[in-house]
Write a structure and sequence with these properties.
Layout: E1 9-10, E2 13-14, E3 38-41, H1 51-78, E4 88-95, H2 98-105, H3 114-127, H4 131-134, E5 141-150, E6 155-158, H5 162-169, H6 172-176, E7 179-183, H7 185-189, H8 198-201, E8 204-209, H9 213-218, H10 223-241, E9 244-247, E10 260-262, H11 270-288, E11 304-307, H12 316-330, E12 336-339, H13 345-360, H14 373-385, E13 402-406, E14 418-420, H15 430-437, E15 441-445, E16 459-462, H16 465-477, H17 485-491, H18 493-504, H19 508-517, H20 520-533, H21 537-542, H22 551-558, H23 565-570, H24 573-587
Parallel strand pairs: 3-4, 3-7, 4-5, 7-8, 8-9, 9-10, 11-12, 11-14, 12-13, 14-15, 15-16
Antiparallel strand pairs: 1-2, 5-6
Helix pairs in contact: 1-18, 10-20, 11-15, 12-16
């Protein structure tokens, strides 16, 4: 238990007892030190276009660029040669089962080997204008850990001990001085295989919390008991396995108060920022020719859009309520184009289009007097194809002008001017960030999850329906403010990397507070009990581990130590005693 590494200790002594300023940073938490190895471990990988696949990949790539810059500056100051060693490693899941890869990636990306998937990821990086980082020799290093896809939870979970996998592929002494960035640390540890804890293997561990799992669980029927359980378990996992915790926004629960901070450590791709610069140049050109107009035509369609997963949890119920209120105020609905896909897309379409258009494909003519046999049969077929309404919104008679356009890369939607996103279920909405970077109006609720965005001039926050209607009317009749170079920098991954380095640091003052708080022993004991409980696969099955339940058996088989349960049982002393008793009875 006492072998867990403490981020406030230097040479078996507390850091704050050394002479220095209270704002000095502990050596373990200083990511600006040269020649530091960094491992970014995440729960998803491309081609799955989810936030925990794309954002960690870009974070690792920009950290690789930053570390090379730090090492180069250090070499210039000390007149030494710059090391060409790969300093940053991205650790991602490899789905061992072909059916998992087909279900998640589709037939077009059914990789036969992890090398094929790595090649795909490096090509994606080259397309994102990161050719140096995509180089397999001198750029970003990519390692895989075996994993399974849990279709019930729509999540990927590791199989076996990730730390042991990294030790087998890396020098052990390297890990003891390295920095580990855990993307979704609670997710990585819920069903993990028993083994050494992250804070025991790595010199410094930073956890970045992406997802509000408690919020998602509370929207389900079983949320009454699962949401509190997830809250407690997540807090325990993050406290036990992280030295510093970064929450993307304040909407998340409290995990370990003395360890955590709130900071947006995400950025956006260069494609979005280039679109923002293009819009700024276009606005400057209009201003120079005096062609700009303060009043625009709000009747023109194709100005407002939404992009994201088509789920009720993404704010579509609030969107319908806002449509109704806007209709009450102006006498008409506002046209909106919706991009994305999801399991609830069908019922959400029907909720927008109303019962006539969505149930029969087109508006029916109630005054038709045709009573032919063919017409009767056609109507009978239509009646059989009707789906039972799943919300009251599907009973509407007046359709809302909403076009569902399917999934598309957000960077290709430069023609729109206004992005509307009423959702408050996200921790930090990436699409909102991207729309602001493109220089568009963004209309979002004033909420803790949107706090970072409200600082930008094109962000129009609303507290009620009246403010929403006023903001939308303003956006439809005005042009967004051009994106200045200072604002554009805030959206870059370079700025996000600087925020990550700053947020990860533990100062002398924080180290002193942690020492006197005395929570280090609690963290070590949580890790210990979690490791002991994890030695029982049955417990993981009871807790919904599904395909990720048999961690111990998987690890034993991988190490060649599993003889098979039937063989073990046959050779056990219990079976031998029964056999001997049975034979003696027969002899008698």
């Amino acid at each position: 238990i006492n072998q867990e590494r403490d981020a406030t200790v230097v040479n078996n002594d507390t850091f704050f007892q050394f002479d220095g300023d209270d704002d000095d940073i502990t050596p373990q938490s200083d990511l600006l030190q040269p020649n530091r190895s960094i491992f970014v471990v995440t729960t998803a990988a491309l081609p799955w276009r989810t936030g925990t696949a794309v954002n960690p990949l870009l974070r690792a790539a920009y950290l690789s660029r930053k570390m090379k810059e730090i090492n180069k500056n250090s070499s210039n100051q000390t007149n030494t040669t710059t090391s060409e060693e790969q300093m940053v490693t991205l650790v991602i899941p490899w789905l061992e089962l072909e059916e998992d890869r087909i279900e998640l990636y589709g037939n077009n990306h059914n990789f036969n080997t992890s090398q094929e998937q790595e090649d795909y990821i490096r090509n994606w990086l080259r397309g994102a204008q990161m050719k140096e980082e995509a180089d397999p020799v001198n750029g970003l290093r990519i390692l895989f850990y075996p994993a399974r896809y849990h279709s019930g939870l729509k999540s990927i979970f590791a199989m076996g001990d990730i730390c042991a996998t990294l030790r087998n592929q890396t020098e052990g002494s390297l890990l003891s001085n390295a920095v580990c960035v855990l993307e979704e640390p609670e997710h990585l540890n819920w069903y993990r295989c028993p083994g050494e804890g992250w804070t025991k293997v790595f010199g410094f561990v930073v956890g970045i919390v992406h997802t509000n799992y408690v919020e998602y669980a509370s929207t389900q029927i079983h949320g009454l008991w699962t949401a509190p359980a997830i809250q407690v378990m997540s807090s325990a996992m993050i406290r036990a396995y992280c030295h510093k915790v970064i929450k993307l926004s304040g909407v998340l629960q409290t995990y370990a108060p003395e360890k955590e901070c709130c900071e947006n450590v995400h950025g956006v791709r260069e494609d979005f920022i280039q679109e923002g610069r293009r819009r700024a140049l276009a606005a400057a050109s209009r201003s120079a020719t005096n062609s700009a107009s303060s009043e625009l035509d709000e009747e023109i369609e194709g100005q407002v859009y939404f992009i994201g997963k088509i789920l009720w949890a993404k704010g579509f119920e609030q969107m319908l309520q806002l449509q109704e209120f806007y209709h009450e105020c102006t006498g008409k609905y506002f046209a909106i184009d919706v991009y994305g896909s999801g399991p609830e897309e069908g019922e959400i379409k029907r909720a927008f289009h109303g019962r006539k258009k969505s149930w029969f494909g087109e508006e029916s003519d109630s005054e038709s007097d045709s009573d032919t046999e063919d017409t009767f049969r056609d109507n009978l077929k239509k009646l059989k194809s009707i789906e039972v309404p799943k919300s009251l919104y599907e009973w509407r008679r007046k359709p809302i002008p909403a076009n569902f356009c399917g999934p598309l890369d957000h960077a290709l939607l430069g023609k729109y001017k206004t992005f509307v996103n009423p959702s408050t279920s996200e921790v930090l909405c990436t699409t909102t960030f991207e729309a602001l970077a493109m220089g568009k109006f963004v209309i979002i609720p004033v909420h803790e999850s949107n706090k970072f965005f409200l600082q930008f001039p094109n962000c129009l926050g609303y507290r009620n329906k009246w403010e929403f209607a006023a903001n939308l009317r303003w956006a439809l009749t005005h042009e967004p403010e051009p994106l200045t170079p200072e604002l554009a920098k805030e959206f870059t991954w370079s700025a996000a990397t600087d925020r990550l380095i700053r947020s990860s640091a533990i100062t002398r003052r924080e180290a002193k507070e942690r020492y006197y708080l005395g929570k280090a022993k609690l963290d070590e004991r949580i890790a210990y009990f979690h490791r002991e409980l994890g030695k029982h696969d049955a417990l993981r099955r009871v807790l919904g581990g599904g395909p990720a339940s048999n961690q111990v058996r998987y690890e034993l088989e991988r190490q060649g130590l599993d003889q098979g349960n039937s063989d073990k049982f046959a050779m056990s002393s219990f079976v031998k005693a029964i056999k001997s008793s049975f034979i003696s009875n027969q002899a008698a």
